[in-house]
Specification:
The chain is an alpha/beta fold. The chain folds into two domains: 75 residues, no CATH class; 316 residues, Alpha/Beta hydrolase fold, catalytic domain (Rossmann fold), CATH 3.40.50. The chain is 43% helix and 13% strand. The protein has 14 helices and nine strands. The protein has a nine-stranded mixed β-sheet, sandwiched between helices. β6, α10 and β7 form a beta-alpha-beta unit. α3 packs across α4 and α9 crosses α10. The longest helix is centred in the middle third of the chain and has 23 residues.
Length: 413
């Protein structure tokens, strides 16, 4: 088994120098900031090719007719990507060396323990939530309860990066925002947020919490994913989920599934009522994995879901294609089998699976990302809306589709 090299602390000169170079290089900063313009233009040009090739194909992702409106949505997505590149520069080369060594060691360990052959065995059944801490709060005019509890998640014994992951102190305590009606029990909807979310105000806005809770009459709970929101306090430099660190991604996904399953079972225990799950982007990825492990879900509704985090991170990476980086990517793809939603068949019936995705999405590409999960899920009911990654929040057809999915699943009347 490959040994993990010793990595200098983040305060040592070579890493600090790399950090300053990445953060302060004005040429790189300006290049990232202007990139959305040519990339959006390229989207428009390629849209013609896509339309000509697929306009008569009714069996897959529909081909959208090129338009300036859709190009504007693509430009908005490219602006978000550029922001990530500016705010999250690549980690030092020494971290890449460590990531490669850890991925190789994990590949051997997971192979020996049977996780690669049977990815479902990588996810042990979590314990029930006992005695959570609950206190009232408000955000965006919505009154809710802040619930917290000890996550109790620990990476597999011997797993590379285990000690580092457990050193993220704030992440050990799981959190969730709860909107609950008084009186008789009502159905629950678990809402799993996307990357860079996990704050009550943002989560409520993106999921239309007031509409779900007040208009549709649901109890709603928003679990906070690892290293997000208050769980990301006091992280060391370059620590993030998702990010470039292979094993932090593996542990982050595994803990996300663990925590969300605990919240789901807590909601089920609040009364004899159905519980559904929905997730957007990274949350759609997590919700798809949960749907591959929990058979009693009323529905699984995935919004603009990421499907292949490794390809997604690589596609938006600013790294050069050096051999070491390519070796690390290859190992990451092999290890990533255990945390891929394409490795687990959904446990709930086809009629209770739903997906919506944007035809101009530049983050979770409709054909390269979402369509792969749609095919894996047996082509359930899907909405391909005309917009980008974040446009669903203002899209009327998405709202109608969400209502339809919840009604047909028995969560709302």
């Amino acid at each position: 088994m490959s040994s993990t090299p010793t990595i200098a602390p983040s305060g040592e000169p070579e890493i600090e120098a790399a950090a300053r170079a990445s953060l302060l290089d004005p040429l790189s900063r300006w290049r990232y900031l202007v990139e959305p313009f040519p990339r959006a233009g390229l989207f428009y040009v390629r849209s013609w090719t896509n339309w000509l090739q697929h306009r008569n194909d009714e069996s897959g992702v529909p081909a959208h007719f090129p338009s300036l409106v859709l190009t504007g949505h693509a430009f908005a997505d490219e602006t978000i990507i550029a922001g990530f590149r500016v705010m999250k520069p690549p980690s030092p080369a020494s971290h890449l060396v460590r990531a490669e060594a850890e991925a190789q060691a994990a590949l051997e360990l997971y192979g020996d323990r049977g996780f690669l052959a049977d990815p479902s065995s990588f996810y042990p059944s979590p314990p029930a939530i006992e005695r959570p801490t609950v206190r009232p709060d408000a955000a965006r005019g919505v009154h809710y309860d802040r619930m917290s509890f000890e996550s109790l998640y620990e990476p597999v014994d011997g797993s590379p990066g285990r000690a580092r992951w457990l050193s993220y102190v704030a992440n050990r305590r799981a959190r969730a925002w709860v909107l609950r009606h008084p009186g008789p029990p009502r159905p629950w909807l678990i809402c799993v947020h996307g990357t860079s979310m996990g704050k009550a105000g943002t989560d409520f806005m993106m999921f239309r919490a007031r509409w779900l809770h007040e208009s549709l009459g649901l109890n709603v709970v928003f679990p906070v994913l690892p290293l997000h929101g208050p769980r990301g306090d006091d992280l060391p430099r370059y620590a993030s989920f998702p990010g470039e660190d292979v094993m932090d991604n593996v542990h982050g996904i595994a803990q996300s599934v663990w925590d969300v399953r605990r919240v789901l079972r807590w909601a089920s225990a609040q009364g004899d009522q159905p519980v559904g799950i929905t997730g957007m982007s990274l949350g759609g990825f997590v919700a798809a994995l949960v749907a591959g492990l929990e058979a009693d879900l009323a529905c699984a509704l995935l919004g603009v879901p990421a499907v292949d985090l490794i390809d997604l991170i690589d596609h938006h990476s600013t790294r050069t294609r050096d051999p070491q980086y390519l070796r690390m990517l290859d190992l990451a793809r092999q290890v990533g089998v255990v945390v891929s939603p394409l490795s687990l068949p959904p446990q709930l019936p086809l009629e209770r699976r739903f997906i919506y995705a944007g035809l101009a999405d530049r983050l979770a590409h409709p054909r390269h990302q979402v369509a792969r999960l749609w095919q894996h899920w047996g082509r359930p009911e899907v909405l391909w809306y005309k917009g980008g990654h974040l446009a669903f929040g203002r899209n009327k057809s998405v709202g109608q589709f969400v209502r339809h999915a919840l009604e047909s699943s028995g969560l709302t009347g």
